[in-house]
Design brief:
Elements lengths: L2 H16 L5 H25 L43 E3 L8 H6 L7 H4 L5 H11 L4 E2 L7 E3 L4 H6 L5 H12 L3 H6 L4 E4 L12 H4 L4 E4 L19 E2 L6 H4 L17 E4 L8 H12 L4 E2 L13 H8 L2 E7 L7 H9 L2 E5 L18 E2 L7 H8 L3 H14 L14 H12 L10 E2 L5 E2 L17
Parallel strand pairs: 1-2, 1-3, 3-4, 4-5, 5-6, 7-8, 7-9, 9-10, 10-11
Antiparallel strand pairs: 12-13
Length: about 475
């Protein structure tokens, strides 16, 4: 029967159905069927109306959680379901330093003399910590073909600061490394993850805009357009991570190098413990401290000499105020913001362009203050004085619960920076990738411009 004939037959059957006369018995039967269907549907709804299973390390609230639910159980944070899923399900491939020519130089320097241990401290320590945590992660895979994401290890900030590579060598080495990665070429870098932990961000790799403009960048640094014509941070693909707080502050409470002290015993209303570096906001704080020495402690820190504050002495001073002022330095992020949570003073952000981590989970208005950097003066101290101790204690209590997200521990912990980063990475996973150099055919094979299938691609591969 042709298509027209099939259409006529269906039309005729439909008309015949419409001409059937429904008697009382048919009506009663139809009503009974409707009622049975209704009650069966309600029963099934109740059967499946159970809480969405949560990840064992986090209490998950369906939909968008009210702000208050984030702080119901200390150390357990609610991750929003939308866009993340109900549990972590990731496969991450971590490149070995020996499998790609040049990768070892990005981790050890040209002579291979820089150790991972020496790079694990300071602001660049996150490059080492994230790498080492991924090596031990249950989400790590040894099979590239099944990986959702690819992690490219590099300690390049530490290497540069210790003279292991200069800027030109860093750029050349990154280009050489990326040219040897077929999977980077396959996705145009969309599924490859890089860590750039300093204020310069991805600008440490001068050609990042050509090669990494689609890759996922983990960095504490957000917008840098105040210093450069273009920012290397993009909210749609990159992830803000916490700074690397001194391990002596983030250990278990009893073994921390300093302990918080009660508000009533703190000598100052506020403090700023940092170098001026010629920055306007910091210089204003130094002047303000001279005007109000009984309210604001702000000695200009020295890196060397007799006036240099030691590690323990620095944190002892930091804990001695109700508010820790956190102005920008060379860039918008400041480690002092994170440190303040462990000495339990309320951070006051004086950096207008700052980006903060895990903003889908944390309401920062509950645990910090952000004040315009253009309004640094007596009015700031007057405002801080007006805040009752009860409100300060409440903010400190909220910060006490979320500060676990600043600590770089394994994802097996109920709350850690690594766990938060993995949740954010999961949101970046794409089912499908394409690049300007990948094409596909009717049999789902992926080919290049010369119609060579992906498994036949050879390295090193040319890049722009």
């Amino acid at each position: 029967m042709g298509s027209v004939g099939r259409g006529r037959a269906l039309f005729t059957a439909g008309n015949a159905h419409q001409n059937i006369v429904c008697g009382r018995a048919h009506q009663i039967g139809a009503l009974a069927l409707i009622a049975a269907t209704f009650f069966l549907t309600r029963a099934l709804d109740r059967l499946y109306d159970v809480p969405i299973p949560s990840h064992p390390s986090l209490s998950t609230v369906a939909g968008e959680s009210p702000v208050g639910t984030l702080f119901q159980h200390p150390g357990f944070l609610s991750w929003p379901n939308r866009g993340y899923g109900t549990s972590l399900s990731l496969k991450i491939y971590v490149y070995e330093e020996s499998e790609v020519d040049g990768l070892r130089e990005l981790m050890r320097g040209r002579d291979g003399k820089i150790s991972a241990e020496s790079c694990a401290k300071g602001q660049w320590g996150t490059q080492v910590k994230i790498h080492h945590l991924l090596l031990k992660s249950k989400f790590r895979t040894s099979r590239k073909e099944e990986a959702d994401l690819f992690f490219v290890p590099s300690y390049v900030k530490c290497v540069r600061m210790n003279g292991g590579l200069n800027d030109k060598e860093i750029n050349q080495t990154y280009v050489k490394v990326l040219g040897q990665m077929p999977y980077f070429r396959l996705s145009g870098g969309r599924d490859h993850v890089f860590v750039f932990p300093s204020g310069a961000g991805a600008h440490l790799f001068r050609s990042w805009a050509v090669f990494l403009n689609r890759s996922i960048i983990l960095t504490p640094e957000g917008d840098r357009t105040d210093k450069r014509p273009i920012s290397s941070f993009h909210t749609w693909k990159d992830i803000i991570i916490p700074g690397n707080v001194d391990d002596g502050l983030t250990t278990f409470y009893e073994s921390r190098i300093v302990q918080p002290i009660p508000l009533s015993k703190r000598k100052y209303l506020a403090n700023f413990l940092g170098r001026a570096q010629g920055k306007v906001g910091r210089l204003q704080l130094l002047d303000l401290a001279k005007q109000y020495p009984d309210k604001l402690e702000s000695p200009e820190l020295q890196l060397t000499g007799p006036n240099k504050l030691g590690r323990v002495e620095y944190f002892t001073h930091l804990r001695n105020a109700k508010f820790c002022l956190s102005p920008r330095g060379e860039s918008s992020w400041t480690l002092r913001f994170y440190e303040s949570f462990f000495v339990e003073c309320v951070p006051v952000i004086l950096s207008d362009q700052i980006e903060l981590p895990f903003q889908n989970v944390i309401d920062y208005t509950l645990i910090s203050i952000k004040w315009p950097s253009t309004q640094i003066g007596p009015q700031l101290l007057k405002y801080l004085e007006s805040i009752p101790d009860e409100a300060i204690e409440s903010m400190i209590a909220g910060g006490r619960e979320v500060r676990c997200l600043w600590v770089y521990l394994p994802e097996s912990e109920p709350c850690s920076a690594m766990l938060g980063i993995l949740w954010e990475l999961q949101r970046k996973v794409r089912r499908f990738h394409q690049s300007v150099e990948t094409f596909w055919l009717h049999n789902q094979s992926i080919v290049n411009r010369e119609f060579v299938e992906f498994h036949g691609w050879r390295t090193p591969l040319p890049l722009p």
